[in-house]
Amino acid sequence: MTSAGEELPPLTIPITRTLIVAGAVASRDYQDVHHDSELAKERGSPDIFMNILTTNGLVGRYITDCFGERAVLRKVAIRLGAPNYPGDTMVLSGTVTSVEGGTAEVWIVGANSIGNHITGTVTVTVPGEGS
Does the CA dihedral 44-46-51-55 come out positive or negative? Predict the structure, then answer.
């Protein structure tokens, strides 16, 4: 599996307008701040921004890419910070904080040019590992 203290390889994700809008539509989040620049600006945002469900999906992809196709997310506890705006880049990084049997806890950070988009922990189990 892995060991406590191990750093996972970073994943760089370009934040495109298409990614933001497609993620919102796919998760049925029709809030205008996720697809309409003018209305987002009227509400005080400089542009549209990514919704939490898209972020959760990207975190899930990152963890399963690192731990393999059999990895099962058991818990995702992340906190939102700086918004992901179009034209920026988010870099996901993780550090394994503990391993017990086939289950690992990972401290995860998603950073963009204005700060940390997310911070938190993910608990992941890989069936057949460490049993």
Answer: negative
Predicted confidence (pLDDT) per residue in 29-78, tens digit:
999 999 999 999 999 999 999 999 999 999 999 999 999 999 999 999 99
Instruction: For residue 34, give the nearest of 55, 48, 52 by alpha carbon.
Output: 48
Identify the CA nearest to 119 among candidates 76, 79, 59. Answer: 79
Give the residue from 97, 88, 96 showing the smallest Cα distance to 115: 88
> CA 112, CA 90: separation in Å to the nearest integer?
5
**Residues near 13 by Cβ (< 8 Å), separated by ≥ 6?**
19, 58, 89, 90, 91, 92
